[in-house]
Amino acid sequence: MTIKVGILGYGNLGKGVECAIKHTSDMELAAVFTRRNPETVQILTEGVKVYSVEEITSMKDQIDVLILCGGSATDLPVQTPEMAKYFNVIDSFDTHAHIPEHFDTVDQAAKEHGHISVISVGWDPGLFSLNRLYASAILPAGENYTFWGKGVSQGHSDAIRRIEGVKDARQYTIPVESALEAVRSGSTPELTTREKHTRECFVVAEEGADLKKIEETIVTMPNYFADYDTTVHFISEEELKRDHAGLPHGGFVIRTGTTGWNDENTHVMEYSLKLDSNAEFTSSVLIAYARAAYRLNQEGQTGCKTVFDIAPAYLSPETGAELRKHLL
Amino acid sequence: MTIKVGILGYGNLGKGVECAIKHTSDMELAAVFTRRNPETVQILTEGVKVYSVEEITSMKDQIDVLILCGGSATDLPVQTPEMAKYFNVIDSFDTHAHIPEHFDTVDQAAKEHGHISVISVGWDPGLFSLNRLYASAILPAGENYTFWGKGVSQGHSDAIRRIEGVKDARQYTIPVESALEAVRSGSTPELTTREKHTRECFVVAEEGADLKKIEETIVTMPNYFADYDTTVHFISEEELKRDHAGLPHGGFVIRTGTTGWNDENTHVMEYSLKLDSNAEFTSSVLIAYARAAYRLNQEGQTGCKTVFDIAPAYLSPETGAELRKHLL
To answer: Which of A217, A251, B77, B301 is the most exposed, fewest CB within 10 Å of its CB?
Structure first.
């Protein structure tokens, strides 16, 4: 028997989930739900239908886990608690500051209706969080450092696109190599925002736009760029398409800490990801936690969970005995 | 209320556990047990007694978790199932091939007596296993690679010490940089034993020993050295003490895998450790899982577990709400 997965929202993430399901042997895509006209949405999997989101609750007995592929700003705060009434759900809610309240709302809905919800699944929050937790528990005398990139920040790219005279843009977040090296040395440096990351922008300007003004607007933009060393390159639309079509990302979680009666020994724990496609990798994490959510619910568990609350074995299609034999 | 920890076996690992307890705020050392004459064993913690292992069962109500610090070859296969009758126990059993049978024996004893046991805790098996599992579940189309070092292999150092004419020795296992780079490139190379690691030996010979013969014996030794490119350096006892006193270790777990409808995107997940003291770091992992074992048992759970079966949040002294707020 395979786990029947539904997808709500068919953008980059939803499509990534569809591809990730194809890579499993124990899961199948049951349905895709969209806010658009379903007839305009073409999916990749043969024989699977696209439905209007209006029909979603009528499908509740045909879906084991629903994966919410909307955005954190406005979609998920509403969708996840609402859908938790009808389905086991997974989301990738990534507004770190609002995770506690999102957790509480979803937890209440999931418990009342006897479902499992797993929120904030992906790589940060997600796998990076896991590494911060494991490392902090093991080396209590130490410091965590998280670096992002090299990769495309969609939020920063969007911020540039909103500037007058900008046709399109791509922004890369780049960790500063010397800061990474300082952290790896175990010296627990205090690093400012500017010392950790630089930002590199590739901008396609409208014809006749004031390039000087665009650059000035970017590098002085509060929150997004003002606290960073930012480089702006103006390129043609063809160059953007040719050289910056992908959405790569990644980063590093490093903890250094000391042990010994007098803290005489230093250790460095490092986790890193180098991803060709941010959305497809995130989707692959979502699918592994969908498997876990299904199993937890089969065991009779309910309520909201995060990656912190789920034993790793639940993520794998293999049995405990198989895992102990060849991965332990 | 603090968690009361007992240590069985006071070698490098037992001493490391003692130091790791000092770094926690929710645990205390309750007793150390030894097979030696307890009067000959000096520990670091003031006010804590050393007992003969003969007295251990009489202490069963004063210890929440017992950490077994013996060796995997002969100590743990007997000690862990025996002690699981009286205590929640943690061990670092690291003979990968015998984990399944060790698990079964310990599971039976722990279940019969209502305790939790966690076996094979440390970094490999342990944290490296966790990373192999997470990465395999997330990128099913991919390959795992594990490299060890640079670090001291005690088994290989001991093997050299048993050679006639050798007074002392230290053997370093070193990952081959070009193999690491090939793996990181995502090309999923097939690597032979010789291509993954080299071995470097620092040997103190007895006066008048046949150095040529010692070197020949080392580099041709089956299982230990014959399949590797091995370098032998003869040094003085002073140099060994001065330059090779520590027991550093570490290594890398890398998984590369593909996603996308036609596997068009490649991802690299890398975990690495760089440890000044193998024993002290392993002890720190043991202590985090001792916390988890205590909590699981408080919840009424029993039986044998591995790192695969324990949700990460159990390792941390912080509450779920605290963890969600500042680590997720």
So the answer is: B301
